[in-house]
Design brief:
This protein is α+β, with helices and mostly antiparallel strands and 210 residues long. It has one domain. Helix content is 61%, strand content 11%. Strands 1-2-3-4 form a 4-stranded antiparallel sheet. A hairpin with a 3-residue loop joins strand 3 and strand 4. Helix 2 packs antiparallel against helix 3, helix 3 packs antiparallel against helix 4 and helix 4 packs antiparallel against helix 5. The radius of gyration is 32 Å and the shape is elongated. The chain starts with 8 loop residues before the first helix and ends with a helix. It comes from Psychrobacter phenylpyruvicus. It catalyses: Release of signal peptides from bacterial membrane prolipoproteins. Hydrolyzes -Xaa-Yaa-Zaa-|-(S,diacylglyceryl)Cys-, in which Xaa is hydrophobic (preferably Leu), and Yaa (Ala or Ser) and Zaa (Gly or Ala) have small, neutral side chains. Pfam families: Peptidase_A8.
């Protein structure tokens, strides 16, 4: 018996149309797949760094204002209780670096630490323009460090020493070195940058192209 199915013109048309459909779909799939794997690029801050400079200016303003109040309202090394027994306002001056490092030197440390702060500040100003715009937490940390560095730099240039007044302690058993708002900003900023490096930078690099 003749195979009518094989000679059926309708079947031939169906097969032909299926083949055309396959050919039409294949190029679309082939061209779509590369775009699915393409990652967006990391965009440097550039002019958007102005936003983070504003945050630095806020830190500087708050730091200088609180130091002005401390010198206006407090007497040198006379503690004023704020939260007993853990927090006092105590006016002190630091001629050295953090924790009074090199404070007992002959005065050369003033310009050494001023130069160091200036170099760090200039580096951060430039780096903020190049830091990724997508790395918002990193930018916050850098802006805090910049504001704190400039806040203490102003003290060193203006009066040759850094004004401190925040005294954390526990009764008379334990005393933390007296510090200021700029120190808080620097320490917080460093902690944020470290957190970004440890937990966010790898994810960011995997998500975005450099």
């Amino acid at each position: 018996m003749p195979n009518t199915a094989g000679n059926n013109p309708g079947n031939n048309l169906d097969n032909g149309s299926n083949g055309l459909a396959d050919k039409a779909v294949a190029p679309a799939y082939a061209t779509a797949s590369p775009s699915l794997t393409k990652r967006p690029k990391l965009i440097p801050n550039r002019q958007h760094a102005l936003l983070w400079y504003v945050l630095s200016l806020v830190v500087i303003g708050l730091d200088q204002w609180t130091k002005w109040l401390a010198e206006l309202k407090l007497n040198f090394h006379e503690p004023v209780a704020v939260i007993e027994p853990i927090l006092n306002w105590t006016l002190a001056y630091n001629y050295g670096a953090a924790f009074s490092f090199l404070a007992d030197q002959g005065g050369w440390q003033k310009w050494f630490f001023a130069g160091l702060s200036l170099a760090m500040s200039l580096f951060l100003v430039i780096y903020l323009t190049r830091a990724p715009r997508q790395a918002k937490l990193l930018n916050v940390g850098l802006a805090l460090i910049l504001g704190g560095a400039i806040g203490n730099l102003i003290d060193r240039v203006r009066i040759g020493k850094v004004i401190d007044f925040i005294h954390v302690h526990y009764a008379d058993v334990w005393h933390y070195p007296i510090f200021n708002v700029a120190d808080i900003a620097i320490c917080t900023g460093v902690a944020i940058v470290v957190i970004d490096m440890l937990f966010l930078e790898g994810k960011r690099n995997a998500k975005f192209q450099a």
